[in-house]
Write a structure and sequence with these properties.
heterotrimer, A alpha+beta (116), B alpha+beta (903), C alpha+beta (121), B: 903 residues, alpha+beta, Rossmann fold, Immunoglobulin-like, 6 domains, 7-stranded parallel beta sheet, 16% helix, C: 121 residues, Alpha-Beta Plaits, 4-stranded antiparallel beta sheet, globular
Chain lengths: 116, 903, 121
C-alpha cells in the first residue's frame, strides 16, 4: 500500500512538471541567470499591400552583440514574454518578429537592450 | 784791357773790399776745419727756448693733436712775449712736456738765459732753457770770404745761400765728385790747385778747342776769345761768332763749387773736400751739343767710344750753359741715361729774362733748372724764369764789371791766353747753378745713396721763401717765377736723411746672431739707431729691434730669440729729424737644432688576449719639427722602429696607439718614439702581458622573421679568447638551453656578428634558441631566447545572421559575419539558399566580396509561399565554411511593430 | 781823391761794356746764306737711326745726301748711339733739310747739333 502511494505521488509530480513545461507563458523554467521581460505591440496588416493580417505568433531574437542575434525563441501568440537564464554580466540585445499563419516573418522591431 | 784800366780796376776792387770788410757785422772767429768735424767754440749761440709748464697736460694734448689745446698753448705765447719783453713765437710742441719756442733773434747763452729767467716769473712756467745750441758757424779764413755775400746767412743777406750753418755739419766728402761741364779749368790757379781729378776735353773742332787737334785728355781752359778778324773770316768756323775776351768761365764756376777753402787765401768754395771733374765742352764760340752730350755721359761714368773710361764718375753735373731751343732728343736721351745712373744734373736757367721753357737744356725733364737772385733776394734782372724753374740761388746783379753785388770767384786776367790768376765778380745764372751743384754735393756727402729726385726734394723742401718788397728792377721772385725758394744750405743738409750700413751678420747659432751698423751719417743728430729683423724681407722698426743709443758711432747688436734653421732678414736703422733710414737687407739662416725630441711612453691598458692600447706624450720637439711618432713593440726589451711600430703622424703632443695581432698569455715591451731632423728618440720601456686564452664570448641576437616553419636568429662573438673561433651559429630546440647536440646552424668563423636561419619548425610550437661559438678552448653559448611559430591556417569561421529581413513573395535579405579568416585570406563569401536544408556552394549562392566582417546579400527569384533555408559561407585557401541554417518563408510579411524597453 | 772820378768813369764804362757784351744765351747760329746763294759755313746735325746701320759708309751717306737735297758728310759716332754729320754749302735752310730727312723711316730722330754758350752775363 505505501509503495503504491509513493509511485502515485511520483507520477503526479512528474505530470505536473511535464504540464508545466508544455504550457506557453507559464512560470519560468529555472531560476539561474538573469531575466528580461519583453513587451511588444501587435501588427495588424501586411507591409506589402496594407491588407489586414492576423498574427499567428512571435519570435524573440537576442544576443550579446548589437545586431548580431545568436538565439531565437518562438513564443507563440503572446505580447510579452520573460526571457530567463541569461548569464549575468552581459548586455543583451533583443528584437522581435511576428509571423502569420503562413509562417512569413515581419522585419524585426527596433532593437532593445538590457544589461544584466 | 789796358794796363791802366787793370790798375784802376784793382784799385776799385780794393776800395770795395775794404768797405765791405768794415761793414761786416758778423764777428770773424777762427775755427779749425777738420774734414767736417767741428771743434766747439766756447761762445755758443741759441735761437730757441724750451718752456716747461707746471701743468703739462695741455702741451701734451697739443702735441697729440688736440686742436683746442693747441690754440690755448699758442695763445699763452702772448703772455710769454709780454713777460720776456721780446717776441716769442711757436716752433713745435714736444710730446714729452715742453713747448719749443723761438727767440726773436740768435742770442748768446747769457742773453737767452736772461729771457728764460723772465719767463720763470710766470706762475704757470716751471722753467725755460735754451734749446738747440748752435755753435758759431764755421767761418773760413779765406781772404775774400767776407766778399762772398752769396754764402752768408739770410739774417745777414737776404739772398745768401746760408753756407756757414751747413759747414757745421759737413764740408764735403772725398767720395763725391762734382763735374763742371764748361770751358775747362785753370788747374794751376792757386785757389784751385789740387781740387780736381783727371778730366777730359771733348771739343771735337780743333779751332774751337784752340789746341789744333780737337778732343784730348787735357781739360785745361785754353781761352775762348774770338777776335774781330776771326769773326769776320767767312772761311773760319768762328765766322760771325761774338767777338770777346776769354771768359775763364769754367774756372769761375769751379771756384764757387770747390775753391780751396780755409787756406788763408783767395775765396771759399761751397764744398771743401769733394773733388771737381773738369769736362771741357765749350771753347771758342761755344760748344756743340754733340760734344756736350758726350762730355755729360763721360762725366757720369757712362761709355763714350774713343775716350778712356772716367775713373771718377761724378754724382753731380754742373751745366752753366745753354741755348734758345726746345729740349731735343739728344739732350733728353743723355739726361735720362745719366739720371738712371744716379747722377744729379744742375743747369743754369739762362740769362735772357724770358721764360725758361725756351732755354735748353734747362727745359729738359729731370734736370734741376736754377734761376738767379740778387743780393736782396729779388730776381736778377737777366734771369730766365717760369714754372719750369726748380730753385733759385745767388747769381749776382752788377751795375758795373766790378760791382761787388756779383759773385766773387777764381778767374784769370788774360784776355786771350791765361796770364795772371785773379778773383773777379761775375753775374749770371751760370753763377747761380754752381751754388746748387755745390750744396747738392754737400747733401750727397752726407748720404751718397740719395737719388737725383731725392736730392731735389731735400733742396726744394728746405728752400727759403722769397722775400717780398725787395725793390729789384725786375721785381721779386715768386714760386711761379723762381722755383721753390732760395736755396738754403744749412736747412738742406739738416734735412738729409740718415744713411747707415748694415754690418755683416756673425756668430750665428741656433737661436741668436750678432749684427750691427756702421758708416752712419746724417744731416741732423741721430736720435736712435739699432738693427731690426724679421723672417720677411726689409724689416722695419715696427719689427723686433734693438736700441743702440744715439750719435754716428758704429755699433754691434745682439739678435736673440730666434728659431733654429730659420732664415731671417736684418737691416740696420738710424733715425734723425729727417726720418728713419735703413741699411741693406741682409739674410742669414740659424743653425739647425741638434737636439732630439723628449717623450714619455704611456703604460699599456685595455689589454686582451691579442691586443692592447698604448701611446706617448712628446714633451719637446728638440727645436726642429717632428716628422714621425708612434709606438714600437716586441717581445724583447727596448723595441725600436726596426720592430713593429705604429705611425701617428707628425707634430708634438699626446697620442694613443692600438696594438693588435698579439699572442695570448705573452709578455710584450712597448716604447713610444718620435723623430725630428736630428734623429729618433724613445720613451721608457713599458711591458705588459696579454690575457691567457679562453673560450670565446658570444651573445644571442633576438629572433625575428617568425613563420609557421622558420625564424631568423643570430649572434655576436665579442671575444675570440685567443684562438680561432670556428664553428659558430645558433642552436634550437623545443626545450630550453639547446646545445650543439640539438639542431644548429653554422655561420662563419671569427669574432663578429652573424645571422642564422632556423628552419624545419612546426607551426604553433614554442622553441628555444641560443647562439654558440667554439674555439680550441671550448664552446660558449649566449642567452636562451624563446619564440613561438605561427599557427597553421584553417578555413574561416562564419555565422549566418538572423533574422532574414525584407521578406517578400520573391525575395529576402540575408547576411553573414566572417568572424575569423582562420589564418588565410577570405577569398570569397556570400549566402547560399535552397528549399532543402544545408544549401551549399554549387547551388544558389550570392557573392559579397571578400574579407572578414559583416555582409548582407539579397536573395531574389524565390517562389512565393515557400520555405527556404539560408546559410552564409566564407572560403579561404584552406576551404569553405558555412554558418548555421536559418529558415524563412516567402510571402506577404506583417508590418514592423514596436518592441518596448524591457524590464 | 783822384781815384774817385776815374773809378766812377771806368765803372760806368765797364757797366756799359758789360751790358752790351752780355750776349743772350740763345746760341743757335742760323745758316747765313750768302749773296751767291751758297753758304760756306758747315752745319752739324745729329741723326739717330732706328736700326744699327753703319752710316759711315759712303754709299749710305750719298743716299742721305740725296734725300736731304744737301751734301752730307759723316763726322763721327756719338755716345748714346747717334751720329754727327756735317753739311757744307747747303742751298736750303737747315729746317728744310731736317724736314726732308725726317721722312726717312730708318731715322729715329734728327736735329741740329746746336752750339751752346756759357750762361754768364
Amino acid at each position: 500500500m505505501k509503495t503504491h502511494l509513493l509511485y502515485f505521488s511520483l507520477l503526479i509530480m512528474m505530470s505536473l512538471i511535464t504540464s508545466c513545461s508544455g504550457g506557453g507563458g507559464g512560470a519560468p523554467a529555472a531560476n539561474s541567470g538573469g531575466t528580461a521581460t519583453l513587451q511588444w505591440s501587435t501588427p495588424a496588416s501586411y507591409i506589402d499591400d496594407g491588407t489586414p493580417m492576423t498574427v499567428a505568433g512571435y519570435k524573440i531574437y537576442y544576443g550579446t552583440e548589437t545586431g548580431v542575434y545568436t538565439d531565437v525563441i518562438d513564443v507563440g501568440n503572446v505580447n510579452s514574454y520573460t526571457v530567463s537564464g541569461l548569464p549575468l554580466g552581459n548586455t543583451y540585445f533583443f528584437a522581435v518578429t511576428a509571423y502569420d499563419a503562413d509562417g512569413v516573418e515581419s522585419d524585426p522591431t527596433d532593437e532593445q537592450a538590457k544589461t544584466l | 784791357m789796358t794796363e791802366k784800366m787793370k790798375r784802376t780796376l784793382r784799385e776799385a776792387v780794393l776800395v770795395i773790399i775794404i768797405s765791405l770788410g768794415l761793414s761786416t757785422t758778423f764777428p770773424s772767429l777762427l775755427l779749425a776745419a777738420n774734414n767736417g768735424n767741428i771743434i766747439p767754440h766756447p761762445q755758443a749761440y741759441t735761437g730757441q727756448l724750451i718752456v716747461k709748464y707746471r701743468d703739462s697736460s695741455m702741451v701734451k694734448a697739443a702735441a697729440a693733436g688736440d686742436t683746442r689745446a693747441k690754440a690755448t698753448a699758442l695763445a699763452r705765447l702772448n703772455t710769454l712775449t709780454a713777460e720776456a719783453g721780446a717776441k716769442i713765437s711757436h716752433v713745435r710742441f714736444m710730446s714729452g712736456n715742453g713747448h719749443v719756442v723761438k727767440l726773436p733773434r740768435l742770442m748768446t747763452i747769457a742773453e737767452a738765459n736772461a729771457v728764460a729767467g723772465r719767463l720763470k716769473s710766470d706762475p704757470n712756467v716751471e722753467y725755460a732753457e735754451p734749446d738747440t745750441l748752435m755753435f758759431p758757424m764755421l767761418v773760413p779764413n779765406d781772404t775774400y770770404y767776407a766778399n762772398q755775400w752769396n754764402y752768408m746767412s739770410p739774417t745777414t743777406v737776404a739772398g745768401g745761400a746760408n753756407l756757414p750753418g751747413a759747414w757745421d755739419i759737413t764740408t764735403g766728402s772725398s767720395s763725391i765728385v762734382v763735374a763742371v761741364i764748361d770751358t775747362g779749368i785753370l788747374p794751376n790757379h792757386p785757389d784751385l790747385f789740387g781740387r780736381t781729378v783727371q778730366g777730359y776735353n771733348f771739343i771735337s773742332n780743333a779751332i774751337m778747342a784752340g789746341n789744333g787737334v780737337g778732343r784730348s785728355s787735357d781739360p785745361t781752359d785754353l781761352g775762348d776769345w774770338v777776335t774781330s778778324a776771326e769773326s769776320a773770316d767767312s772761311s773760319s768756323v768762328l765766322y760771325k761768332c761774338t767777338e770777346e775776351d776769354s771768359s775763364w768761365h769754367g774756372t769761375h764756376v769751379a771756384g764757387t763749387i770747390g775753391a780751396s777753402s780755409n787756406n788763408s787765401e783767395g775765396v771759399s768754395g761751397i764744398n771743401w773736400v769733394s773733388k771737381i771733374l773738369p769736362v771741357r765742352v765749350l771753347g771758342k764760340c761755344g760748344g756743340y751739343t754733340s760734344d756736350i752730350v758726350d762730355g755729360m755721359r763721360w762725366a757720369a761714368g757712362l761709355d763714350v767710344a774713343g775716350v778712356p773710361a772716367n775713373t771718377n764718375p761724378a754724382k753731380v753735373l754742373n751745366m752753366s750753359l745753354g741755348g734758345s731751343d726746345e729740349c731735343g732728343a739728344t739732350f733728353q736721351g743723355a739726361i735720362n741715361d745719366i739720371i738712371a745712373a744716379g747722377a744729379t744734373i744742375v743747369v743754369a736757367a739762362g740769362n735772357s729774362n724770358t721764360d725758361v721753357s725756351n732755354a735748353t737744356p734747362a727745359n729738359c725733364t729731370g734736370v734741376i733748372s736754377v734761376a738767379a737772385v740778387n743780393r736782396v733776394g729779388g730776381r736778377a734782372f737777366y734771369s730766365n724764369y717760369g714754372t719750369g724753374i726748380k730753385i733759385a740761388a745767388p747769381g749776382g746783379e752788377m751795375a758795373s764789371s766790378t760791382d761787388a753785388n756779383g759773385i766773387l770767384s777764381t778767374l784769370n786776367s788774360g784776355t786771350t791766353t791765361a796770364s795772371t790768376y785773379t778773383y773777379q765778380y761775375y753775374q749770371g745764372t751760370s753763377m747761380a747753378a754752381p751754388h746748387v751743384s755745390g750744396i747738392a754735393s754737400l747733401v750727397l756727402s752726407l748720404n751718397p745713396s740719395l737719388t737725383p729726385s731725392q736730392v731735389l726734394s731735400v733742396l726744394q723742401s728746405t728752400a727759403r721763401s722769397f722775400p717780398t718788397g725787395t725793390g729789384s728792377s725786375k721785381g721779386d721772385c715768386t714760386t711761379s717765377l723762381c722755383g721753390a725758394g732760395i736755396i738754403d744750405a744749412a736747412a738742406a743738409v739738416q734735412a738729409v736723411p740718415a744713411i747707415i750700413t748694415t754690418s755683416e751678420i756673425t756668430g750665428i747659432t741656433t737661436k741668436a746672431a750678432t749684427g750691427g751698423g756702421s758708416n752712419i751719417s746724417a744731416g741732423s743728430a741721430i736720435t736712435a739707431k739699432g738693427i731690426c729683423w724679421s723672417t720677411s724681407p726689409n724689416p722695419t722698426t715696427a719689427n723686433t729691434r734693438t736700441s743702440n743709443g744715439t750719435g754716428t758711432d758704429s755699433f754691434t747688436a745682439s739678435i736673440t730669440g730666434l728659431s733654429p734653421n730659420t732664415t731671417y732678414h736684418v737691416r740696420a736703422y738710424a733715425t734723425s729729424s729727417a726720418g728713419t733710414s735703413y741699411g741693406s737687407d741682409f739674410t742669414f739662416t740659424t743653425a739647425p737644432s741638434t737636439l732630439l725630441p723628449t717623450l714619455t711612453t704611456t703604460p699599456a691598458d685595455t689589454i686582451s688576449t691579442t691586443s692592447a692600447s698604448s701611446g706617448g706624450i712628446v714633451t719637446s720637439d728638440g727645436g726642429s719639427s717632428l716628422t714621425a711618432k708612434g709606438i714600437c713593440w716586441a717581445t724583447t726589451a727596448n723595441p725600436t722602429t726596426a720592430n713593429n711600430y705604429t705611425a701617428e703622424g707628425a707634430g708634438s703632443g699626446a697620442f694613443t696607439s692600438l696594438i693588435t695581432g698579439l699572442t695570448a698569455n705573452t709578455t710584450y715591451h712597448v716604447r713610444a718614439y718620435a723623430t725630428n731632423t736630428t734623429g729618433t728618440a724613445y720613451g721608457l720601456d713599458q711591458n705588459f702581458t696579454t690575457s691567457p686564452s679562453s673560450p670565446p664570448s658570444v651573445t644571442t641576437a633576438s629572433v625575428s622573421g617568425i613563420t609557421t616553419t622558420s625564424a631568423i636568429g643570430g649572434g655576436n662573438v665579442t671575444l675570440g679568447g685567443g684562438s680561432t673561433v670556428s664553428p659558430r651559429g645558433v642552436c634550437w630546440s623545443t626545450s630550453s638551453n639547446p646545445t650543439t647536440s640539438d639542431n644548429c646552424s653554422s655561420n662563419g668563423t671569427g669574432t663578429s656578428t652573424f645571422v642564422s636561419s632556423i628552419t624545419g619548425l612546426s607551426a604553433g610550437v614554442t622553441y628555444h634558441a641560443r647562439a654558440y661559438a667554439t674555439n680550441s678552448n671550448g664552446t660558449s653559448y649566449g642567452n636562451d631566447t624563446a619564440f613561438t611559430t605561427l599557427t597553421a591556417a584553417t578555413a574561416p569561421t562564419i555565422i549566418t545572421t538572423m533574422p532574414i529581413k525584407s521578406i517578400t513573395t520573391t525575395s529576402a535579405t540575408a547576411g553573414g559575419n566572417v568572424i575569423s579568416d582562420g589564418g588565410s585570406n577570405v577569398t570569397g563569401r556570400g549566402v547560399c539558399w535552397s528549399t532543402s536544408i544545408n544549401p551549399a556552394i554549387g547551388g544558389n549562392c550570392t557573392s559579397d566580396n571578400s574579407g572578414t566582417g559583416k555582409f548582407t546579400s539579397s536573395i531574389t527569384g524565390l517562389a512565393t509561399g515557400t520555405q527556404y533555408y539560408v546559410r552564409a559561407f566564407a572560403m579561404n585557401a584552406k576551404g569553405a565554411s558555412y554558418g548555421k541554417n536559418v529558415a524563412f518563408k516567402t510571402g506577404k510579411r506583417p508590418v514592423k511593430f514596436i518592441l518596448y524597453p524591457p524590464r | 781823391m783822384s781815384i774817385l772820378p776815374v773809378t766812377i768813369f771806368f765803372s760806368l764804362s765797364l757797366a756799359v761794356i758789360t751790358v752790351s757784351c752780355s750776349s743772350p744765351t740763345s746760341a743757335v747760329k742760323p745758316i747765313e746764306i750768302s749773296q751767291t746763294g751758297k753758304s760756306q759755313q758747315t752745319v752739324q746735325i745729329i741723326i739717330k737711326f732706328r736700326n744699327n746701320s753703319d752710316p759711315s759708309k759712303s754709299d749710305f751717306v750719298k743716299e742721305l745726301s740725296r734725300d736731304a737735297h744737301a751734301p752730307l758728310f759723316y763726322i763721327r759716332p756719338m755716345s748714346g748711339g747717334a751720329h754727327v754729320f756735317g753739311i757744307t754749302g747747303a742751298t736750303e735752310s737747315t729746317a728744310e733739310i731736317l724736314r726732308r730727312l725726317r721722312t726717312r723711316h730708318d731715322i729715329e730722330y734728327v736735329e741740329q747739333d746746336s752750339i751752346m754758350q756759357p750762361a754768364v752775363n
